Amino acid sequence: QVLGWGRTLPEKDIVGNKLSHLEDIISERLENSESARLDIWQVTMSSYPSGYARESGDNDRQDGHDIIEVTEPKEPNQKLVRKMSNYMSIGVQGYVGSGFEAHRAGNRLANMFVYAQESSKWVFWRRFPDLNQFIKNITQNGQVVLECPTPAERKQNTEKASDIPQMTNNPIDFVIQNIPHIWGREVDLWGEAESGLESVSNRSGPTDPEQWVPQRANDGKVEIMTIENMVSYFKKLANFRQHVSRLGQLNTPFDINFRPPEVHQKEVKKIKSSSNWEKAKALLKDKRRHKYEKSNTICIMCDGEFYEIKDPKSISFDCFAQIWTLGHKQDNINMGRLVRDEVNSRNDQ
Protein backbone atom coordinates (compact mmCIF):
# COMPACT_ATOMS: atom_id res chain seq x y z
CA GLN A 1 0.00 0.00 0.00
CA VAL A 2 2.74 2.49 0.89
CA LEU A 3 4.20 1.86 -2.56
CA GLY A 4 0.89 3.01 -4.04
CA TRP A 5 -0.17 -0.27 -5.67
CA GLY A 6 -3.27 -0.79 -3.52
CA ARG A 7 -4.32 -3.54 -1.11
CA THR A 8 -4.95 -6.37 -3.59
CA LEU A 9 -4.36 -7.41 -7.18
CA PRO A 10 -7.21 -7.07 -9.73
CA GLU A 11 -6.96 -10.73 -10.77
CA LYS A 12 -7.20 -13.66 -8.35
CA ASP A 13 -5.17 -15.71 -10.79
CA ILE A 14 -1.89 -13.80 -10.60
CA VAL A 15 -0.15 -15.86 -13.30
CA GLY A 16 -2.94 -16.16 -15.88
CA ASN A 17 -3.01 -18.05 -19.14
CA LYS A 18 0.53 -18.17 -20.58
CA LEU A 19 1.67 -15.71 -17.88
CA SER A 20 -0.62 -13.00 -19.29
CA HIS A 21 -1.75 -11.59 -15.92
CA LEU A 22 1.77 -11.61 -14.52
CA GLU A 23 3.04 -9.86 -17.65
CA ASP A 24 0.39 -7.14 -17.29
CA ILE A 25 1.31 -6.55 -13.64
CA ILE A 26 5.03 -6.30 -14.39
CA SER A 27 4.48 -4.02 -17.38
CA GLU A 28 2.19 -1.67 -15.45
CA ARG A 29 4.57 -1.39 -12.54
CA LEU A 30 7.60 -0.75 -14.69
CA GLU A 31 5.80 1.88 -16.78
CA ASN A 32 4.18 3.75 -13.86
CA SER A 33 6.84 3.53 -11.17
CA GLU A 34 9.55 5.59 -9.55
CA SER A 35 12.43 4.38 -7.42
CA ALA A 36 12.25 5.30 -3.74
CA ARG A 37 14.39 4.56 -0.69
CA LEU A 38 13.17 2.88 2.48
CA ASP A 39 14.96 2.63 5.83
CA ILE A 40 15.21 -0.81 7.44
CA TRP A 41 15.65 -0.84 11.22
CA GLN A 42 17.15 -3.56 13.37
CA VAL A 43 15.23 -4.05 16.60
CA THR A 44 16.79 -5.94 19.52
CA MET A 45 14.35 -7.00 22.25
CA SER A 46 16.07 -8.16 25.44
CA SER A 47 15.01 -9.29 28.90
CA TYR A 48 16.62 -9.65 32.31
CA PRO A 49 18.05 -13.13 33.10
CA SER A 50 14.84 -13.98 34.98
CA GLY A 51 12.72 -13.49 31.85
CA TYR A 52 12.57 -14.19 28.12
CA ALA A 53 11.84 -12.63 24.75
CA ARG A 54 9.83 -14.73 22.29
CA GLU A 55 7.16 -14.78 19.61
CA SER A 56 3.55 -14.92 20.72
CA GLY A 57 1.26 -17.79 19.88
CA ASP A 58 1.52 -21.50 19.21
CA ASN A 59 4.78 -22.91 17.88
CA ASP A 60 2.94 -25.67 15.95
CA ARG A 61 0.51 -23.60 13.89
CA GLN A 62 -0.88 -25.26 10.77
CA ASP A 63 -1.88 -22.16 8.81
CA GLY A 64 1.00 -22.05 6.36
CA HIS A 65 2.60 -19.22 8.31
CA ASP A 66 5.99 -20.93 8.43
CA ILE A 67 8.34 -17.97 8.54
CA ILE A 68 11.31 -18.16 10.89
CA GLU A 69 9.70 -15.95 13.55
CA VAL A 70 7.10 -18.67 14.13
CA THR A 71 8.92 -21.92 13.45
CA GLU A 72 12.03 -21.33 15.52
CA PRO A 73 12.14 -22.89 19.03
CA LYS A 74 10.32 -21.15 21.86
CA GLU A 75 12.81 -22.07 24.60
CA PRO A 76 13.53 -19.15 26.95
CA ASN A 77 15.83 -16.68 25.24
CA GLN A 78 16.94 -13.34 26.65
CA LYS A 79 17.39 -11.67 23.26
CA LEU A 80 15.40 -11.49 20.05
CA VAL A 81 16.54 -9.59 16.93
CA ARG A 82 14.11 -8.56 14.19
CA LYS A 83 14.00 -6.14 11.25
CA MET A 84 11.40 -3.36 11.07
CA SER A 85 10.35 -1.31 8.06
CA ASN A 86 6.92 0.06 9.03
CA TYR A 87 6.11 0.52 12.72
CA MET A 88 6.08 -1.03 16.17
CA SER A 89 3.35 -0.88 18.82
CA ILE A 90 4.19 -1.50 22.47
CA GLY A 91 0.94 -2.06 24.35
CA VAL A 92 -2.55 -2.16 22.81
CA GLN A 93 -1.86 -3.93 19.50
CA GLY A 94 0.67 -6.21 21.15
CA TYR A 95 -1.72 -7.40 23.86
CA VAL A 96 -4.60 -7.91 21.44
CA GLY A 97 -2.34 -9.63 18.95
CA SER A 98 -0.89 -12.03 21.50
CA GLY A 99 -4.35 -13.50 22.03
CA PHE A 100 -4.94 -13.47 18.29
CA GLU A 101 -1.75 -15.44 17.59
CA ALA A 102 -2.88 -18.20 19.93
CA HIS A 103 -6.01 -18.71 17.78
CA ARG A 104 -4.80 -17.67 14.32
CA ALA A 105 -6.74 -19.49 11.60
CA GLY A 106 -5.76 -20.65 8.14
CA ASN A 107 -7.59 -18.05 6.03
CA ARG A 108 -7.94 -14.28 5.95
CA LEU A 109 -11.68 -14.08 6.71
CA ALA A 110 -11.38 -16.35 9.74
CA ASN A 111 -8.40 -14.35 10.97
CA MET A 112 -10.41 -11.12 10.74
CA PHE A 113 -13.13 -12.71 12.90
CA VAL A 114 -10.61 -13.99 15.46
CA TYR A 115 -8.91 -10.58 15.68
CA ALA A 116 -12.25 -8.78 16.09
CA GLN A 117 -13.25 -11.24 18.81
CA GLU A 118 -9.98 -10.78 20.67
CA SER A 119 -10.24 -6.98 20.36
CA SER A 120 -13.77 -6.99 21.83
CA LYS A 121 -12.53 -8.89 24.88
CA TRP A 122 -10.09 -6.10 25.67
CA VAL A 123 -12.55 -3.32 24.95
CA PHE A 124 -15.47 -4.65 27.02
CA TRP A 125 -14.02 -6.93 29.71
CA ARG A 126 -10.37 -6.12 30.20
CA ARG A 127 -8.26 -3.01 30.52
CA PHE A 128 -4.84 -2.19 29.17
CA PRO A 129 -2.01 -1.53 31.64
CA ASP A 130 -0.31 1.88 31.84
CA LEU A 131 3.04 1.61 30.09
CA ASN A 132 4.68 3.96 32.60
CA GLN A 133 4.60 0.99 34.98
CA PHE A 134 6.98 -0.80 32.59
CA ILE A 135 8.99 1.82 30.67
CA LYS A 136 11.58 3.77 32.63
CA ASN A 137 13.13 6.06 30.01
CA ILE A 138 14.42 6.48 26.48
CA THR A 139 18.16 6.90 25.95
CA GLN A 140 20.20 7.96 22.94
CA ASN A 141 23.95 7.31 22.89
CA GLY A 142 23.79 6.56 26.60
CA GLN A 143 22.08 9.86 27.49
CA VAL A 144 18.52 10.00 28.86
CA VAL A 145 16.41 12.02 26.42
CA LEU A 146 12.99 11.25 27.94
CA GLU A 147 11.87 10.02 31.35
CA CYS A 148 8.60 8.11 31.78
CA PRO A 149 7.60 8.55 35.44
CA THR A 150 4.62 6.84 37.04
CA PRO A 151 1.93 9.04 38.67
CA ALA A 152 3.46 8.26 42.08
CA GLU A 153 6.93 9.28 40.89
CA ARG A 154 5.58 12.53 39.47
CA LYS A 155 4.09 13.40 42.85
CA GLN A 156 7.38 12.66 44.58
CA ASN A 157 9.39 14.72 42.10
CA THR A 158 7.27 17.88 42.14
CA GLU A 159 9.79 19.62 44.39
CA LYS A 160 12.83 18.44 42.43
CA ALA A 161 13.87 20.53 39.44
CA SER A 162 14.96 18.54 36.38
CA ASP A 163 15.99 19.63 32.90
CA ILE A 164 15.35 16.19 31.42
CA PRO A 165 12.14 15.98 29.36
CA GLN A 166 9.39 14.03 31.14
CA MET A 167 6.18 12.41 29.97
CA THR A 168 3.12 13.92 31.61
CA ASN A 169 0.55 11.26 30.65
CA ASN A 170 -0.01 7.55 31.32
CA PRO A 171 -0.33 5.93 27.87
CA ILE A 172 -1.59 2.46 27.02
CA ASP A 173 0.27 2.35 23.69
CA PHE A 174 3.67 3.46 22.36
CA VAL A 175 3.89 3.77 18.56
CA ILE A 176 7.35 3.84 16.97
CA GLN A 177 6.78 4.71 13.32
CA ASN A 178 9.07 4.69 10.28
CA ILE A 179 6.44 5.03 7.52
CA PRO A 180 3.25 7.11 7.96
CA HIS A 181 1.17 3.95 7.54
CA ILE A 182 -0.67 2.35 10.45
CA TRP A 183 -3.65 0.03 11.13
CA GLY A 184 -3.54 -1.29 7.55
CA ARG A 185 -4.18 2.18 6.12
CA GLU A 186 -2.08 5.15 5.03
CA VAL A 187 -2.71 7.05 8.25
CA ASP A 188 -0.37 9.99 8.83
CA LEU A 189 -0.78 10.34 12.61
CA TRP A 190 2.37 12.41 13.05
CA GLY A 191 1.94 14.76 10.11
CA GLU A 192 -1.77 15.48 10.67
CA ALA A 193 -1.38 16.32 14.37
CA GLU A 194 -2.22 19.89 15.39
CA SER A 195 -1.92 19.53 19.16
CA GLY A 196 -0.71 17.13 21.84
CA LEU A 197 2.68 18.59 22.70
CA GLU A 198 1.62 18.85 26.36
CA SER A 199 2.39 15.13 26.64
CA VAL A 200 6.03 16.03 27.43
CA SER A 201 7.35 18.73 29.77
CA ASN A 202 10.78 20.42 29.55
CA ARG A 203 11.11 19.53 25.88
CA SER A 204 14.64 19.57 24.48
CA GLY A 205 16.81 17.57 22.10
CA PRO A 206 14.82 14.98 20.09
CA THR A 207 11.61 15.89 21.96
CA ASP A 208 11.83 19.56 20.91
CA PRO A 209 9.47 20.32 17.96
CA GLU A 210 11.89 23.02 16.77
CA GLN A 211 14.35 20.26 15.89
CA TRP A 212 11.86 18.04 14.07
CA VAL A 213 11.87 17.65 10.30
CA PRO A 214 9.00 16.35 8.12
CA GLN A 215 8.45 12.63 8.63
CA ARG A 216 9.91 10.51 5.86
CA ALA A 217 10.65 6.83 5.38
CA ASN A 218 14.20 7.47 4.15
CA ASP A 219 15.62 9.95 6.68
CA GLY A 220 17.23 7.56 9.19
CA LYS A 221 14.75 8.66 11.86
CA VAL A 222 11.64 7.28 13.53
CA GLU A 223 8.80 9.10 15.26
CA ILE A 224 7.47 8.10 18.68
CA MET A 225 3.93 8.92 19.80
CA THR A 226 1.53 7.57 22.42
CA ILE A 227 -2.16 6.77 22.84
CA GLU A 228 -3.53 7.53 26.30
CA ASN A 229 -6.72 5.48 26.49
CA MET A 230 -9.34 3.61 24.46
CA VAL A 231 -11.28 6.82 23.73
CA SER A 232 -8.15 8.31 22.17
CA TYR A 233 -7.55 5.05 20.28
CA PHE A 234 -11.06 4.97 18.77
CA LYS A 235 -10.87 8.67 17.85
CA LYS A 236 -7.78 8.04 15.76
CA LEU A 237 -9.36 5.01 14.13
CA ALA A 238 -12.41 7.16 13.31
CA ASN A 239 -10.26 9.84 11.65
CA PHE A 240 -10.22 12.35 14.56
CA ARG A 241 -6.46 12.74 14.58
CA GLN A 242 -5.73 16.40 15.22
CA HIS A 243 -4.60 15.60 18.78
CA VAL A 244 -1.66 13.19 18.85
CA SER A 245 0.73 12.86 21.78
CA ARG A 246 4.00 13.19 19.87
CA LEU A 247 6.98 12.38 22.10
CA GLY A 248 9.94 12.82 19.80
CA GLN A 249 11.81 12.18 16.59
CA LEU A 250 14.93 10.07 17.07
CA ASN A 251 17.78 8.96 14.85
CA THR A 252 19.90 5.89 15.34
CA PRO A 253 20.77 4.38 17.75
CA PHE A 254 18.42 4.68 20.72
CA ASP A 255 16.96 2.45 23.44
CA ILE A 256 13.66 2.12 25.26
CA ASN A 257 14.59 0.97 28.78
CA PHE A 258 12.33 -0.88 31.20
CA ARG A 259 12.10 -0.99 34.97
CA PRO A 260 13.93 -3.81 36.81
CA PRO A 261 11.88 -6.91 37.78
CA GLU A 262 12.00 -6.17 41.51
CA VAL A 263 9.79 -3.11 40.93
CA HIS A 264 6.97 -5.50 39.99
CA GLN A 265 7.20 -7.64 43.11
CA LYS A 266 4.02 -8.06 45.10
CA GLU A 267 3.51 -5.09 47.41
CA VAL A 268 3.11 -7.51 50.33
CA LYS A 269 6.67 -8.73 49.80
CA LYS A 270 7.97 -5.17 49.95
CA ILE A 271 6.43 -4.55 53.37
CA LYS A 272 9.02 -4.61 56.14
CA SER A 273 6.58 -3.59 58.85
CA SER A 274 4.60 -6.22 60.78
CA SER A 275 1.57 -3.92 60.92
CA ASN A 276 -1.63 -5.65 59.79
CA TRP A 277 -2.92 -2.34 58.46
CA GLU A 278 0.12 -1.94 56.18
CA LYS A 279 -0.27 -5.52 54.97
CA ALA A 280 -3.97 -4.96 54.26
CA LYS A 281 -3.19 -1.86 52.18
CA ALA A 282 -0.50 -3.78 50.28
CA LEU A 283 -2.92 -6.64 49.55
CA LEU A 284 -5.52 -4.20 48.25
CA LYS A 285 -2.93 -2.51 46.04
CA ASP A 286 -1.83 -5.88 44.65
CA LYS A 287 -5.43 -6.77 43.83
CA ARG A 288 -5.85 -3.57 41.82
CA ARG A 289 -2.70 -4.10 39.77
CA HIS A 290 -3.02 -5.32 36.19
CA LYS A 291 -2.17 -8.99 35.69
CA TYR A 292 0.45 -8.14 33.06
CA GLU A 293 2.03 -5.68 35.48
CA LYS A 294 2.10 -8.36 38.18
CA SER A 295 3.83 -10.82 35.85
CA ASN A 296 5.95 -8.01 34.32
CA THR A 297 5.10 -9.07 30.77
CA ILE A 298 4.99 -6.60 27.90
CA CYS A 299 3.46 -7.42 24.50
CA ILE A 300 4.68 -5.96 21.21
CA MET A 301 3.57 -5.81 17.59
CA CYS A 302 6.30 -5.24 15.00
CA ASP A 303 5.33 -5.10 11.31
CA GLY A 304 2.35 -7.40 11.80
CA GLU A 305 4.11 -9.99 13.98
CA PHE A 306 3.54 -10.31 17.72
CA TYR A 307 6.05 -10.79 20.54
CA GLU A 308 6.09 -10.88 24.32
CA ILE A 309 8.88 -10.10 26.76
CA LYS A 310 8.85 -11.34 30.34
CA ASP A 311 10.91 -9.08 32.67
CA PRO A 312 11.83 -6.75 29.76
CA LYS A 313 15.16 -4.94 29.92
CA SER A 314 15.36 -2.88 26.73
CA ILE A 315 14.32 -2.53 23.11
CA SER A 316 17.16 -1.15 20.98
CA PHE A 317 16.71 0.49 17.58
CA ASP A 318 19.47 0.80 14.99
CA CYS A 319 19.14 1.87 11.35
CA PHE A 320 20.32 -1.32 9.65
CA ALA A 321 20.12 -0.59 5.93
CA GLN A 322 18.42 1.44 3.23
CA ILE A 323 16.82 -0.36 0.29
CA TRP A 324 15.44 0.78 -3.07
CA THR A 325 11.80 0.09 -3.91
CA LEU A 326 9.56 0.73 -6.92
CA GLY A 327 6.55 2.83 -6.01
CA HIS A 328 3.55 3.96 -8.04
CA LYS A 329 3.81 7.35 -9.74
CA GLN A 330 1.20 8.25 -12.33
CA ASP A 331 1.82 11.99 -12.15
CA ASN A 332 2.96 14.63 -9.66
CA ILE A 333 -0.22 14.16 -7.60
CA ASN A 334 -1.00 10.44 -7.77
CA MET A 335 1.96 8.68 -6.19
CA GLY A 336 2.73 6.28 -3.35
CA ARG A 337 3.89 7.56 0.02
CA LEU A 338 7.46 6.30 -0.41
CA VAL A 339 7.73 7.99 -3.80
CA ARG A 340 6.42 11.24 -2.32
CA ASP A 341 9.04 11.04 0.44
CA GLU A 342 11.76 10.46 -2.16
CA VAL A 343 10.61 13.40 -4.30
CA ASN A 344 10.47 15.70 -1.26
CA SER A 345 13.96 14.60 -0.19
CA ARG A 346 15.34 15.55 -3.60
CA ASN A 347 13.60 18.92 -3.46
CA ASP A 348 15.24 19.63 -0.09
CA GLN A 349 18.72 19.31 -1.57
Automatic annotation (TrEMBL):
<protein>
    <recommendedName>
        <fullName>Diacylglycerol kinase accessory domain-containing protein</fullName>
    </recommendedName>
</protein>
<keyword id="KW-0067">ATP-binding</keyword>
<dbReference type="GO" id="GO:0005524">
    <property type="term" value="F:ATP binding"/>
</dbReference>
<dbReference type="GO" id="GO:0004143">
    <property type="term" value="F:ATP-dependent diacylglycerol kinase activity"/>
</dbReference>
<dbReference type="InterPro" id="IPR000756">
    <property type="entry name" value="Diacylglycerol_kin_accessory"/>
</dbReference>
<keyword id="KW-0808">Transferase</keyword>
<dbReference type="GO" id="GO:0016020">
    <property type="term" value="C:membrane"/>
</dbReference>
<feature type="domain" description="Diacylglycerol kinase accessory">
    <location>
        <begin position="84"/>
        <end position="258"/>
    </location>
</feature>
<dbReference type="Pfam" id="PF00609">
    <property type="entry name" value="DAGK_acc"/>
</dbReference>
<keyword id="KW-0418">Kinase</keyword>
<dbReference type="GO" id="GO:0007200">
    <property type="term" value="P:phospholipase C-activating G protein-coupled receptor signaling pathway"/>
</dbReference>
<keyword id="KW-0547">Nucleotide-binding</keyword>
<dbReference type="InterPro" id="IPR037607">
    <property type="entry name" value="DGK"/>
</dbReference>
